[in-house]
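lol forgot to send this yesterday, sorry. struct tokens for the thing we talked abt
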């Protein structure tokens, strides 16, 4: 496949800075918007805030009975939000761990929480219930009940619509109506949603070992198949021109520039021996981080060179990868409970 190959490989230097532990499977971890704090959640319920600079803990609390499912930061306020298997959503003060609000998600298990980028609404998904809240915890709207469990939610860039994925369809919701404004039907089981940063595409990773694409403007769809396992790992690059996908030990990167991925062969990045468990494109540069269930971490320049730029091995399957807002560091979490920060310096920064 023709590619725009860079003559000089990108050079990066990777330095492990610190490591701490939650003593249980790290189900989620995220940088604060200013990059100064890391919030992390263990599957059994603990939520912790950690100083990003040196890894020292600010506080840790058992946030949810039966377990925590997700954490997210408010985009403007100093507030952390968590969801759990006790059916609640909770807001926390990142300074001291004080609970600021508690809301009922509408079912026994709240799976997903997502702040609108404008910070005015929080969307939550619990079973078949999709709800909308203001930052104080006041319920703004409950949307029409879904026909099946909501697998994922995401705010669509540009339009401000909320997208939900469940068996058989993607649904688009406007904050001013409890009825969907658009429905993209597809007979399949969606696991995860990824909207391209430019709002042109929505991709889903699916139970039947496929990746599905929709062109948002027209609703036209296409499907990529041949993955060895179900696909839970998706990551767009900053320009929305490349989508990295897991679904096995090989990372497939689809070229979505111009006419899109239809009819194109993917770039295949093949170094992992275990199934890929996490993917994260750099927020500015053409650097992709991939990790697998053996703890193998690799850095790539997709479309530039087929070999990894750098590699590391950590103890335990990697469950979380996220770049810092400035792109200088990578946060990782593992199934053994480890949380760490790795600094990445590039000659093209």
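and heres what i got for the seq, position by position
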């Amino acid at each position: 496949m023709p590619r725009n190959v860079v003559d000089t490989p990108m050079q990066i230097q990777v330095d492990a800075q610190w490591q701490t532990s939650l003593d249980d499977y790290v189900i989620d971890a995220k940088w604060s918007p200013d990059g100064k704090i890391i919030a992390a959640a263990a599957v059994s319920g603990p939520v912790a805030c950690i100083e990003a600079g040196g890894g020292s803990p600010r506080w840790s609390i058992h946030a949810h009975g039966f377990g925590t499912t997700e954490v997210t930061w408010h985009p403007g306020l100093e507030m952390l939000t968590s969801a759990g298997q006790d059916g609640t959503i909770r807001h926390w003060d990142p300074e001291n761990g004080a609970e600021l609000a508690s809301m009922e998600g509408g079912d026994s298990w709240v799976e997903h929480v997502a702040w609108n980028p404008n910070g005015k609404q929080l969307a939550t998904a619990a079973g078949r219930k999709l709800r909308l809240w203001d930052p104080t915890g006041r319920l703004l709207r409950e949307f029409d009940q879904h026909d099946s469990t909501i697998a994922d939610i995401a705010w669509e860039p540009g339009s401000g619509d909320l997208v939900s994925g469940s068996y058989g369809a993607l649904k688009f919701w406007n904050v001013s109506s409890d009825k969907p404004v658009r429905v993209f039907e597809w007979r399949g089981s969606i696991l995860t949603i990824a909207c391209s940063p430019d709002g042109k595409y929505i991709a889903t990773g699916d139970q039947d070992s496929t990746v599905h694409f929709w062109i948002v403007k027209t609703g036209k769809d296409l499907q990529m198949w041949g993955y060895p396992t179900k696909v839970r790992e998706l990551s767009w690059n900053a320009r929305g021109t490349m989508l990295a996908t897991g679904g096995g030990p090989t990372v497939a990167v689809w070229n979505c520039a111009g006419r899109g991925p239809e009819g194109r062969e993917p770039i295949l990045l093949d170094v992992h021996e275990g199934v890929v468990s996490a993917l994260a494109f750099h927020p500015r540069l053409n650097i992709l981080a991939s990790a697998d269930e053996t703890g193998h971490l690799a850095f790539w320049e997709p479309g530039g060179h087929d070999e990894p730029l750098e590699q590391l091995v950590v103890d335990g399957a990697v469950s979380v990868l996220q770049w810092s807002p400035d792109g200088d560091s990578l946060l990782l979490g593992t199934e053994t409970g480890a949380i760490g920060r790795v600094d990445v310096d590039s000659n093209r920064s």
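DSSP finds no helices and 32 strands in the chain. anyway ping me if u want another try
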